[in-house]
Specification:
six-stranded mixed sheet, 13 helices, five-stranded mixed sheet, alpha/beta
């Protein structure tokens, strides 16, 4: 007695006959299935329909009259009906030919469009731009850069991913982006670095904070301050930790907020202090709703770069984008371009 899921074993001869029948059925289905039409035959038919003459069609296609005639005959055999009537040296489309001509033009037009699209992509990356950048770059610098970029290249779609330095390097290595705007990594990485600008981060406090009145941070009070961070795992936070470890100081993280705007609002409300660069708080510095102070005697500067893959040739879109970024930085007084 066989269980429901037990394999049925046939004698060798029966297995051979079964495999043979299966193969013959498979081949019959393959031959019965209608194969795609030959694009060269379609082109010969459309050209013949336009010229109404085998000789003229051959001249346009750089083929002999006989070759055009054979292509048409093969196409008619493939579709199973007559497409043209021969009237001496000229031809006239049959009713089937008139209907088929409409479809043939659409097929050839689609193939031409596909080739043109691939050609555009092959021209040094033209046609798209994939960028990765931090929130601060996306919010405060990228709009101005993209404004200039898309004035020159309005037909290039742009996608921007949120990424820190480490994430940007991984995206580049995976081939998922063309370039990234990030803080230059502190150790050697397999990426190409294009210098953009240098900034300096410092304390951000509300106007009523004691440090705002003295214009400096009291070193003995730093450890007692409630610190508000953007993201504890970010590259900037690692630089900050290293900076204060060298000074034998420990920071007390009170809040971690994933938004620069939320951080600035929290500082204004007196929930704590933050560490930011001046260019991410221009409106607040102008209306004096926030105060920016040096971290200490030593400065903490960040070098921002465009990161590109070493394994891929820079795309035209990527090169153009970086150039616009460099020009934008030069026009901003609170950013120091890197040489």
């Amino acid at each position: 007695m066989l269980l429901a899921d037990s394999p049925v074993r046939l004698p060798c001869q029966q297995r051979g006959e079964w495999h043979g029948k299966f193969f013959m059925t498979l081949m019959k289905n393959f031959h019965d299935r209608k194969q795609p039409l030959d694009s060269r035959q379609l082109l010969a038919f459309v050209t013949l329909a336009d010229t109404r003459n085998f000789t003229l069609a051959g001249r346009e296609l750089f083929l002999s009259q006989s070759a055009v005639s054979h292509a048409l005959k093969a196409l008619e055999g493939d579709v199973g009906c007559r497409l043209v009537d021969r009237l001496g040296k000229k031809i006239q489309l049959t009713a089937a030919g008139e209907d088929f001509l409409h479809h043939a033009r659409k097929v050839l037009g689609g193939m031409t469009a596909a080739r043109d699209s691939l050609d555009r992509l092959a021209k040094w990356g033209k046609g798209r731009l994939r960028v990765a950048a931090s929130e601060s770059i996306r919010q405060h610098l990228l709009p101005e850069v993209l404004l200039g970029f898309q004035k020159d290249y309005a037909d290039w779609p742009v996608t921007v991913e949120s990424a820190d330095t480490r994430e940007s390097i991984e995206l580049l290595q995976q081939g998922n982006i063309d370039c990234a705007i990030a803080i230059a990594p502190s150790r050697s990485e397999a990426v190409d670095l294009v210098p953009l600008f240098t900034d300096e981060i410092g304390w951000v406090v509300p106007p009523h904070h004691p440090w705002a009145r003295t214009g400096r941070a009291a070193p003995e009070e730093i450890s007692a301050q409630r610190l508000i961070l953007h993201h504890s795992g970010s590259y900037t936070c690692r630089l900050l930790e290293k900076y204060f470890q060298q000074a034998s100081m420990e920071l007390k993280v009170y809040l971690e907020l994933g938004s620069l705007e939320a951080i600035k609002t929290a500082v204004k409300r007196g929930l704590g202090i933050a560490v930011l660069a001046p260019w991410v708080m221009r409106p607040e510095l102008q209306d004096q709703s926030l105060i920016h102070l040096p971290l200490g005697k030593r400065k903490l500067r960040r070098n921002w770069c465009a990161l590109r893959s070493l394994d891929q040739k820079p795309t035209l879109a990527g090169e153009t984008f970086v150039r616009h970024f460099q020009n934008t930085v030069k026009a901003l007084p609170d950013l120091q371009p890197m040489s």
